[in-house]
Write a structure and sequence with these properties.
Helices cover 45% and strands 15% of the residues. A 7-stranded parallel beta sheet has the order 3-2-1-4-5-6-7, sandwiched between helices. It is α/β, with parallel strands linked by helices and 234 residues long. The protein starts with a strand and ends in an 8-residue tail after the last strand. The protein has a single domain, classed as 3-Layer(aba) Sandwich (Rossmann fold). Helix 1 packs across helix 8. It has 8 helices and 7 strands; from the N terminus they run βαββαβαβααβαααβ. It binds NADP nicotinamide-adenine-dinucleotide phosphate. Keywords: Fatty acid biosynthesis, Fatty acid metabolism, Lipid biosynthesis, Lipid metabolism, NADP, Oxidoreductase. It is an enzyme of class 1 (oxidoreductase). Catalyzes the NADPH-dependent reduction of beta-ketoacyl-ACP substrates to beta-hydroxyacyl-ACP products, the first reductive step in the elongation cycle of fatty acid biosynthesis.
Length: 234
Amino acid sequence: MSRSVLVTGGNRGIGLAIAHAFAEAGDKVAITYRSGEPPAGFLAVKCDITDSEQVEQAYKEIEEKHGAVEVLVANAGVTRDQLLLRMSEEDFTSVVETNLTGTFRVVKRASKGMLRARKGRVVLISSVVGLMGSPGQANYAASKAGLVGFARSLARELGSRNITVNVVAPGFVDTDMTRVLTDEQRAGIVGNVPLGRYAQPEEIAASVRFLASEDAAYITGAVIPVDGGMGMGH
Ligand SMILES: NC(=O)c1ccc[n+]([C@@H]2O[C@H](COP(=O)([O-])OP(=O)(O)OC[C@H]3O[C@@H](n4cnc5c(N)ncnc54)[C@H](OP(=O)(O)O)[C@@H]3O)[C@@H](O)[C@H]2O)c1
């Protein structure tokens, strides 16, 4: 198996673990990064997903070097937590712009090649928070819940072309995004996780790789929780 795989935000955290999982399986993996030195071992393309022109340039580079993207993992995302009354319009729109509209941009561009090839795999990284809600994260939860409706619409739209579109909804994962939480906040979160711990990024990556594999050929429009049981019932 040597497919052309793109992982947005694959330079660190969950995205980097996903990039490693595909590379270990023998795929050609491209990752996006915005600044600094990207990790070695991948085709690193500079791309801010809030900028359509950068998205287009990134795809052109990947297509030249690896061929059209056959597996897209839309992982890039941000938080900007604030209680509603203190949340500025910019806090809200910037998170939606990256997490939801940015995902729209990269999926739309990938779908061109997938439609032509009459096959493709798209995996979106949402969050348990998009399903359960979370105080102080109305912007983030709205963007992550939006990904579910987006994915399910595309699953219906693209299914006849053998393109699957699924969502992985991680719980709390040990990355830079959650390292900013205080010990007290972390303890509170872990108290609500039946498995009693955070996930490691590799545990999210394993589900993503499965959804992109032959074994998952008949799964589309699904939301797979990888959350230690935290979001059960949502
Ligand atoms: N950690 C968790 O507990 C958790 C739980 C559920 C869901 N998630 C989701 O999983 C995904 C990865 O999270 P993480 O924990 O690995 O976060 P992270 O360590 O903060 O990494 C975020 C990644 O997204 C990239 N990114 C952010 N804005 C971008 C933009 N405008 N254009 C391109 N790339 C951008 C970052 O690139 P730079 O390096 O350039 O900043 C980085 O690679 C996110 O969608 C997040 O919402 C995380």
